[in-house]
Amino acid sequence: MITPIKQINRFFLLATGPLLGLLIALFIGGAGIEFQAGIQSFVPDSEIPQVTGAIAQRLDEAEGAAKLTASSIRETAELYHKTTATMSSIVETAQQSAKQPETIYNKRITAQLGSPYQTIQSDKIRIELYKVNPGTYKGYAMKVKLKSPDAMKMSLGKDKLGGSETTLRAVQRHGAVAGINAGGFADSHGKRYPLSTTVLNGEYLTGFEPSFKDLFFVGLNKSGKLIGGKFKNKTDLDMLQPSFGASFVPLLLNNGVKTTIPTKWLNSPLRAPRTVIGNYKDDQLLILVIDGRDENGSSGATLTELQNKLFKMGVQDAYNLDGGGSSSLIVNGRVVNKPSDGQLRPVPTHFLFFK
């Protein structure tokens, strides 16, 4: 692609080309030929002054043309440098202006979260960690900007179907900078299997399962954008090009609108440790991990509380991931939250983040 500065370079090369050609033609094709003719032909002594005068006139004309051409070249070069500098300034200003809406929007988001107490920055990702304490529950918010699609991945417990491991262990094994628990699971014969439709590296682990009851699918597509929802057929999900994803219940926000939380999940339990993932209009992710002493409903957050908070913060789509003793947040090799089991629970799927 030709940049504006390259287009200017090409213009001035084309503009100065004919001037240089004229100078060369005057020296070689004009005065040079007259010299050659004078040398090869016999000229009487009486005509020598006329011939030399003509040659001198030609040389004067060539010299004048050369000076004019040189002056034009200098002026053109000066104009070129000034124009190039101006275009560079315009391009830089345009780039800065293009970033202003993003910066303004990000400030609006951050204003509702407060000041991050930890930040991780690289050319692939930006992670900001905040404390959340509205009075009725305590926890953590992790705002994530994915600068590269491969900055977030999903891992399978011990890299096999039926396997499980803690989020800390998954982070350590894969060299991630952060990680959270992902989808729900079902136990069978001493093994722990992901719940419903699960996609890893673009492949369906156990095939596609149409959404039923309150289940949803959530993950990232190949462009690094959060995708999710309920899907009745595989074609609809395939159109979103899922790179990875897991399933759980229930959906909290859809396109910035609150969804109806089924009564079953409103009260069973009322309060609990929670893990929620959502996205903003600019595709930044927001993850909430809420602490609670146990899963008996006496501490933690209700789904309604989290839904309202996410709605007020301008989150567009929000999904409730597995909670209770499964809720875990790992950053820089450290367990940030307080697992309700007193220790991390081994689960089959984890969302991991990479520098």
What are the main properties of this structure?
alpha+beta, eight-stranded antiparallel β-sheet, 37% helix, single chain, 355 residues, 2 domains, five-stranded antiparallel β-sheet
In short:
With 355 residues, this protein is an alpha+beta fold. The protein has two domains: 4-105; 114-353, no CATH class. It has helices spanning 4-40, 48-113, 167-174, 234-238, 263-267, 303-312; strands at residues 118-121, 125-132, 139-146, 152-156, 178-181, 185-188, 191-194, 199-200, 203-204, 216-221, 226-229, 242-248, 251-254, 257-258, 274-279, 285-290, 317-321, 329-331, 334-335, 349-353.
Plain-language structure description:
There is one protein chain. With about 350 residues, this protein is an alpha+beta fold. The chain folds into two domains: about 5-105; about 115-355, no CATH class. The chain is built from six helices and 20 strands. The strands form five sheets. It has an eight-stranded antiparallel sheet with strand order 1-2-3-16-15-17-13-14, covered by helices on one side. Strands 4-20-5-18-19 form a five-stranded antiparallel sheet, with helices on one face. It has a three-stranded antiparallel sheet with strand order 11-10-12, with no helix packed on it. A hairpin with a 6-residue loop joins β2 (about 125-130) and β3 (about 140-145). α1 (about 5-40) runs antiparallel to α2 (about 50-115). It is elongated and about 125 Å long. Mean pLDDT is about 85; it is low at about 30-40.
